[in-house]
Specification:
209 residues, Nucleotidyltransferase, domain 5
Length: 209
């Protein structure tokens, strides 16, 4: 396991992120240049880490939910690269990747992760609870009821202000910056679920699942 090289790519939330296991990482606001700049920045990341593309064993991908364009940019690049290298992709949902960047996640703290999904909705998933909220798109009523029924709940988001404004709710929500290092942490537990590029599926989550 120690010798496995994983390249992690997360374009699903507000930043474009990539990381290399045992190497460096970046989290940048690339805006409309995301599709053009992602391959360049990844190549720089590998070069600065002293790693070549042929050294990569797996690509970990945040496969949604999140921003539609970003998800597609990340998925297209990951699939194309995996196909060219003859390796598999480890899909991880975006909220689990973000959860792994929360400082207290490994302490089994009760956690609710939310991300903006449009006016009136957020994507959400909970962790470490007996009755977890499954990954999906939810409105204010569902989130409010879930929070009221679960005490000692830590709530995090990549963009708390936007997510809470979408719900028109006031909640104590911590901002956790997207970082593909969290994606690597999650992917290490999901290697058995790696898929070929043509098998990759996206979690758009336009309705609760």
């Amino acid at each position: 396991m120690k010798n496995i090289k994983i390249l992690a790519i997360d374009c699903s939330l507000r930043l474009t992120c990539a990381a290399l296991s045992g190497g460096g990482s970046f989290a940048l606001d690339l805006g409309r240049a995301q599709a053009a700049e992602l391959p360049v920045k990844v190549e720089e990341l590998l070069k600065n880490s002293g790693v070549s593309f042929s050294d990569i064993n797996y690509i970990a991908l945040a496969n949604g939910p999140g921003y539609f364009t970003g998800i597609r940019v990340g998925a297209a690049y990951a699939a194309g690269l995996a196909f060219a290298l003859g390796i598999k992709i480890i899909p991880v949902n975006s909220l689990e990747a973000l959860a792994n960047n929360f400082n207290n996640f490994n302490l089994n703290k009760n956690l609710l992760v939310i991300a903006y999904a449009g006016h009136g909705f957020v994507y959400a998933k909970s962790f470490n609870l007996e009755n977890n909220l499954q990954l999906g798109q939810y409105d204010a009523e569902v989130i409010k009821n879930f929070v009221n029924n679960n005490k000692d709940l830590n709530i995090i988001s990549d963009d708390p202000e936007r997510a809470l404004n979408a719900l028109n709710l006031k909640l104590d929500c911590e901002c956790v910056k997207p970082d593909a290092k969290g994606l690597i942490k999650a992917a290490l537990n999901k290697i058995d679920f790696a898929v070929r590029p043509e098998e990759l599926r996206i979690e758009y989550c336009k309705s609760a699942i």
